[in-house]
Structure formats: C-alpha cells, structure tokens
Amino acid sequence: MQFYARNTVMESRQWHALTRDAVLSELDSVMTGLSSVQVAARLRDYGANRLPEPPKRSLLRRFLLQFHNVLIHVLLGSALVTALLGHVVDTAVILGVVFINAAIGLVQEYRAERALAAISDLLAPYANVLRDGGRCSVRVEDLVPGDIVLLSAGDRVPADLRVLRSHGLGIQEAMLTGESLTVEKHTDPVFPAVAVAERSCMAFGGTLVVSGQGVGVVVATGTDTEMGRISHLLGNVTTLTTPLVRQMNVFARRLTVVILSLALVVLALGHFIWHYPFSDLFIAVVGLSVAAIPEGLPAVMTITLALGARAMARRNAVVRHLPAIETLSSVSVICTDKTGTLTRNEMVASELVTVDECLVISGEGYAPDGEIRSAELRLDPQTRPGLQELAQVAALCNDAALQNSEGSWRVEGDPMEGALLALAARLGVTRAKAQQQWIRTDVLPFEAEHRYMATLHHDHEGHARLFIKGAPERVLAMCRRVRTADGGEAYLDDNWWQARIEALAARGQRVLALASRMVPASQTVLARADVEGGIVLLGLVALMDPPRPEAVAAIAECQRAGIGVRMITGDHATTAAAIGRMLGLARTQRVITGAELDTMNDGELGRAVMETDIFARTSPEHKLRLVTALQAHGLTVAMTGDGVNDAPALKRADVGIAMGRKGSEAAREAADIVLADDNFASIVAAVREGRTVNDNITRVIGWTLPTSAGEAATIMAALLLGMVLPVTPVQILWVNLITAVTLGVALAFEPGERSAMQRPPRSPHAPLLGWFWLWHIVLVTLLFLAGVFGVYAWAIGQGHDIALARTMAMNTLIMMEIAHLFFIRSIHAPAFSIATLRGTRAVWSAIAIVVMAQCAMIWVPPLQAIFDTRAIPFFEGLLIPVVGVLLLLAVETERQLRRRMKKHWHGSIGHHASK
Ligand code: ATP
C-alpha cells in the first residue's frame, strides 16, 4: 500500500503541491474518513499526535534544589560551626532538620504538582473528525495521518492538514510564520518550492482558525508537523506560583535577612556585653533564627492553592492559571452567557409557526419520532409542501449530526441544530435523504455578529437553492414574501410576525426563522450580499431550552454572597427576560440590547451596567465594553465566553471563564478557568472554593507567623533577661520542624466554612494580613511567653530539675500551638463551636503525629539523651493541656470582646449618623 511507505510519503512534505485527490489516495483515505481499524493501525505506526514534553528534572536534582534556600544555608553553616565547637549532638540535630526539611519540601512539591497534573489532563483538546462515515469528536492526541478533520472558527488546527474544502477559512499563522495577518485558505495546489507562509492549501498544526469553515486531511502529526520541526519542546508547563506566593516569597526572604541580622546583633551582644559562653550562645541564636523564619510558608501556600485547584476541578471548574484562584475570592460580579450556562442547552423544537397555522410538536429529546398537531388535531406533514421545504432547510442548513447509541439519541455539534435535525425528521425529512437530493456547494457559517447561517445547494436536475436560518429579526429583514402551506407565496406582514415572535419568546423560548430562495444554477459561491433580498420566509421554530434548576439556587447564593450576576446573551431580549425571570435574576424588568448599547456613551453605559441585569442580542465587542464599564466601578469581574471573538473580553475580565463543551479552543486558551460542564452553578462553586482557599491561606499565615514569633520570643526573652533557657535551642529546632510540617499543613485541608458565601467578596485591595493580624501576633507571642515561662517556673518551684521543667515547657509550647490551631480554624465562627472542635481528618492526623513524636521524645531513652528530656509524671502532665485550653479561652475571649466593641462602635456611629 502506498501509505505505508512512510519514508517516501511522510518525509516528502510536498502535500501542498498535490491535488486533493492525489493527497487522499497517497494517504489511503477518503472524504468520509478512516475506519476505526485503520486509525488503530496508524496510531501504532505513527504514535500519538503530540509534541514531546520537556524533560523532567531528576529526583536527585529536585532534592538538591531544596537546599537552595537561605535558611538551609544558614543551618548548614551552623552545623559546621557546632561541629568545630565539638557539639556533635547539636550538629546531628541540625543536619537531621536540614535533611527532613528537604525531604518534606520535595514531597510537598510533588503533591502540588500531582494535583495540577491531574487537572491539565482535563484540559486535553479535542478535534472534530469524520470516522467510520460519521462525525465525532476525538482527542487531538489520537489523530492519525489520513484523518478527515472539520475546522471552524475558534479551533486550533490539531495537526498539519491539507485543506480539502474551504468556506472562507481564515487562519492566523503568526506563531508559525510571524505573519500577523489572517491567511485565507484555498484548496488548489501551489508550487512545490513555495515557503511555508505561502502554502495556502495547508493548515498547520498549532495555528488558529479565526473565520469560516473548512475540511482537511491530516498529513503529519506530532513531531512530523511544521510546528514539531521548529520547536521540539512545547510543553504546557503550569507554573506553581501566583502573585500572592511570590509576594510571600519576597516577604519571607526579607524577613530572613532581618532575622539573620538581628541574630548577628544578639550574638555580638551576648558574646561581648553579656559574656555568655560562645558555644551555648551560638546554638541559642541558631535556634532563635530557625524558629523566627517562616521558611515553609510559601510551600504550604502553594499546596493550599494546588488543593484548591483540585477541589475546583472536582466541581467542574478547571483552573488554567493558578492566580485566578486568588482572584475568584474577590469576584463581585459574574457576567454569564445564557445558553448552556444558565439553561441546559438541551433543546427541543416545541412549536412551529407558518403563515397559515401554529403547530405544536411533540417528541422526546433528539429522537426522530414525534407528532405534529394543529389545533389539537394530528397532522400529516407530508401533505404540506410548505412544511416539507421548511424541514429541508432545518436538515440541510445545519452542521450537527445525531447519533443513536444504545437506543438514546445524542447530538454531535450544536444542540440547537440537533433539535432542528430531530424536527426535520418528525416532519418526515431525514438528513441523509435531503442530502442525496440537495448537495451543499457553499456555506456562510453562523457567526455571532451576523446571527444567521446560509447554505447553497444544487440538485441533480440543474436547480440551485439558498437555505437560511437565523435570528428572526435578522431573517425577517431579508424577506418580503412568505411561503404558504400549499407551497405558494404571500405578502409578509411584518407586524403579524413580530407579534408571533414576541409571544413565543415571552415563554422563554428561543425563536429561529427559516427561509429559502431559488438562485441560478450557475451560482456556486455564496456571499453575504446574496442573502440580503428576495428571500422567502418559511416559518418560525420555537425551541425550548429549560433553565437549569441548579442555576436558580446558584443565583440566590450569589445574591447572599454579595455577588452581582449579569446575563449577557446573544439571544432575543424577550426570551432573555423570560429566562431571567424564571431564574430569579431580574432585579428590574429592563433588558438592554446590543443596539441600545451602541448608542450609549461611557457615562450612560456606566450607569446601565449597575442598574440592569440582562443584556440581549449582544455581540462579543459588547462584552468587552461591559467588562470594562464594570471594572471602572472598581468591581472584580468574572466573565464567561465561548466564541473566538470572546477572547478579548475573557482576557480583559479579572477571571475569564470559557465553556469546556460548547466553547472554542481560542476561548479556552484565553480563559483562566474552563468549565467542564458549561454550568453556571460550577462558576459559583469555584468562587466558593476560591473563598475557601483564600481563608485557608489566611489561616496558614495566621497560624505560622504567631507560632514562629512565639517560639523565637521564648529564646530571645531568656537571653535578654539573662535567664536559663526554658526550652533548649535543640528542642526549639525539633518543635519547629515537627509542628511546621504537620499542624501548619493541616490548615491547607480545611473545608469551606458555611459562612463563606454569606459575606461580601474580599476587597481586592485589602491586605491579606491587616492590623488585626499584627496585633494577634503580639498577643499570641505574649501568651506563649506566659505559658512557657509560667510552666517552667512552676516546675522549678515544685523542686523538679531543669531537664524536666524544660521538657514540660517544650510540651506546653506544642500544646499551645495545637490550641492556637483550633482558634485559627474558625476565622469567622466561634472557636468553641462543635464544628470547630470536631476538627478534620487532616487536623487530627497532624495532632496524632505530633503527640506520638512527643511521646517518643519523652520516653524513648536514646531520644531522651539527644534532646535532654525526661518522662513527665502524670499530674504534671495534666497541667500541659490545661494551659492549652487556657490559651484558647484567652484568644477567643479577646476576639469576642473585640467583635462586640466593633459592633457597639458601628452601632453608635450609625446612631449618630441617623440623628
Ligand atoms: P448565549 O450568548 O447566551 O450563549 P446564544 O447562544 O443565543 O446565547 P449566540 O450564539 O450569539 O448566542 O446566538 C445569537 C442568536 O443567533 C441566537 O439567538 C439565534 O437566533 C441565532 N443563532 C444561534 N446559533 C445559530 C446557528 N447555528 N445558525 C443560525 N442562527 C443561529
């Protein structure tokens, strides 16, 4: 077989110089596509259609990279110094801390990456192909040479294709050729020697279809493509960082420098002024520095974000850019499409209006059988030539396909077109039969700004016809006459039709007008000018697309959460208003149309966006204006989009959200988030997760900083006051290590608080940690000092030796950290609620690990020797949790008092204001 001579055919790369037939025969393919058997064989021969990923860093390299950190350098330096001073135990502990830290860093990084890798799998692109004689959508990876690919505006070309059909197919090839103008593609061969940019009958993998439609046959996949040749490494690397994590990195680095400078000052003071023995002082200062530096914070924040991204993916919101998670928590307006997002996008043609009668259509989903009734009486559509013509338009001015799998009918392509195919079948016209009679010669594909689609067809007897379907006001404007039931023509009464459209739309139905026109058989090319006059209206089809029940609940949730919702739809104003009412969306009855928006200046638009919830008959440019107008009010805007022209609005929005199902690849690439199910409720779920992630990051920071400060202050206070250290530096190193990786990380797993969607969105300008947190750090530090020194002093007072007193002080410190964790868990609810105290699995596992580690440290003799600890007697042991509970009581009481004062304060201001 010619095809399998891979070396001669695939590497000749002269596809652009061959005729369409020659290309097909060389590739052993046909216009109706390959068979599954051929595809399987070729997939084995040619491999998957993907570019190799950049090589991953080796495990060892990644482990070593963990040492690339100021704190670790300081620790390694300290280990060297302690070794030189002959403190072998200290050196061993410090080195242990370093290695365990690096290992944990590696595990955390791996966990975050794994969570994100699972997500990027969900973003795998799909292509529409013809296989086994039918249309289907397959993963781009699974394309093989010879596959017939359907292209339409917004698609990324999935492999190198030889164009077999082009209807205004315009492709943006900048990423391959650097040429930013759109290139119009044709099907005629070009000279063998022309440059890539001039191969106008080729569509190259990775380039973007910006207009029209086309069909092509795959000639090269994976690394054999032009893109594969110029760049062998085009990985889709998701970076693990966000502005907040970067900010935290910078903060942590600066803090490290400040702390290390302070440590040097303390070292100098201690040595030269207070005359402490150098080796003891040195290890104390090392302990102090390690305790104070929040080294693990950026890593734990990254984990929190990655877990948030995973939780969102589970709720069908796939995050493409991690920073979007942070922005989601401050979203104050969601601008959403209607079709598919607020409604199900499962359409059924329910009514038909012709000039003679109003017909009711029944039938299940996309199944071809159903009844047509006129005034309650069953009607035989075959007896109405007008209806038969309408059915032909419905079947042929249509790019969707219906498939029957195991008794249920599914649509490939636009569900509305699927519903029209089902309608045609119910009227007695199947797609296959109609296609045999009328062959499509050209098409004007549907584009959001024109709102209609037209096709040109020829039959075998030398006739040519134009079929049109589109938004009713658009199609009505083209028509002067209407088709009557007997196949004749009558004058079109515009007012009568407008009233019918309004009546159908007022019930929330989407209305479509179908029309046709005879043209000379010599016409083979279709232009926009051909559809401007002389068209005969055949009738109106009303399609029901019910609102999603979950969208009603989600809109109500947005209202409670202080988030505005705007419906920005391409649909008719009356339909949009009716659906808006069903969803509980319309604050006012007002609907603004795209045409009205065009007449508004920026000031008027600024007012309109705040007062109106529904915008109808809009085009993608209007979306851009609306986002900009909302942002001018200081609002954080999330915006959905699906078409290629929605990309600018998606990029402009603070959170761009693309439809995963009906959206184009171009929209997906411009978006921050892709909705796997196109569902509005998933956007709201993502916002809820975003708020949870934000709360968790606040928790992680709010727990880590006071803890670090408290630990450091313990050593600092003892040094300053010239007291015996209540906890040894080695013990502090241990406490810091064990708690940071258990208790700190547990907060990343906190589920959302119920109140998350009952408060207004976070202001995007609000600092993550305000004055309250600074005060909280001071308060907790003081309480930690009181607890540690108090227990230590009490133990000494009871006549216990220093080692036991220190062991008790250290365990008190840990217990207070655990108590503080429970306080931090409930940012918004009281800490003494059952929900907070019940904890989560992550919290209890972390506590279990810490408690087991502490028990080992106290009771296992070799550890006792290393850390100089003693077994704590029973009664003394009881004191430790009591101190923990006291700390929790203290911080919670302070919080309640502060809240009351705040309320009182606001109340009295309000009282004065109202006076
Ligand atoms: P939304 O913007 O909420 O998703 P929509 O799907 O109605 O709503 P568009 O896709 O911009 O928005 O469609 C606008 C109008 O164009 C529709 O109301 C319909 O009248 C018409 N239309 C939509 N799809 C087609 C199509 N495939 N062929 C012909 N006309 C169409």
Automatic annotation (TrEMBL):
Q: Which UniProt keywords apply?
A: ATP-binding, Cell membrane, Magnesium, Membrane, Nucleotide-binding, Phosphoprotein, Translocase, Transmembrane, Transmembrane helix
Q: Which Gene3D superfamilies match?
A: Calcium-transporting ATPase, cytoplasmic domain N, Calcium-transporting ATPase, cytoplasmic transduction domain A, Calcium-transporting ATPase, transmembrane domain, HAD superfamily/HAD-like
Locations listed in the record: Cell membrane
Q: Give the primary localization class.
A: membrane
What molecular functions are annotated in GO for this chain?
Answer: ATP binding; ATP hydrolysis activity; P-type ion transporter activity
Q: Name one Pfam family in it.
A: Cation_ATPase
The UniProt entry lists membrane topology as: Multi-pass membrane protein
Source domain of life: Bacteria
Signal peptide range in chain numbering: none
Single GO cellular component term: plasma membrane
Give the family from UniProt: Belongs to the cation transport ATPase (P-type) (TC 3.A.3) family. Type IIA subfamily.
Q: What is this protein called?
A: HAD-IC family P-type ATPase
Lineage per the UniProt record: Bacteria, Pseudomonadati, Pseudomonadota, Gammaproteobacteria, Oceanospirillales
